[in-house]
Design brief:
Elements: E1 10-12, E2 19-21, H1 35-50, H2 52-55, H3 59-69, H4 78-93, H5 97-110, H6 128-132, H7 137-154, H8 157-170
Antiparallel strand pairs: 1-2
Helix pairs in contact: 3-4, 3-7, 4-5, 4-7, 4-8
Length: about 180
Amino acid sequence: MNAPKGTHESTTCPGCGAVLPGSPWPGTTKYNASAECAEAAGELLGFEVQHAARLGYLHQLRIDAYGAQHVDPAAPRIGPVFALNGLYMFLERGSGNLDVRTAHGIMANSYDDWPRLVPPARVGELTAYDVLTAGGVDEVESALLEWAREVWGSWPDADRDTIRELTVRLVPERWFKR
């Protein structure tokens, strides 16, 4: 991500706190994110697609780490629940992309009283921009995994326990790898 020529202003993302060079990117986001952070997340997706054979297994994890780090307080309550569910299933249960997306579908069709989860003041130190700029494929893979672990670990124990309980109650065991 390059700052436009002649622009020296920077912005701070309200979700992750990343301070990024100003950008003319006109994008809007469903997340609590600056346009510059959303642009970095899009570029990270592009890098993932370029290296899909190696990074494809982290696709849903990337989405969920970003979503859990950029919770919009005004968004539907299901968003942070699903983001944290994906982090839980990957990091603690060993479930992959398809398992997590299937779990989201099962949960959405069988439950609707989602808890209101309020993110902590700081949701991990690493950001999508840090992952994007980590280096080559090996470094990006390692950074993405560390980012997801940080985001998951930064949420309060009570919220993570709520996600564990909801997931185990609503999702059949066959969607868990361990």
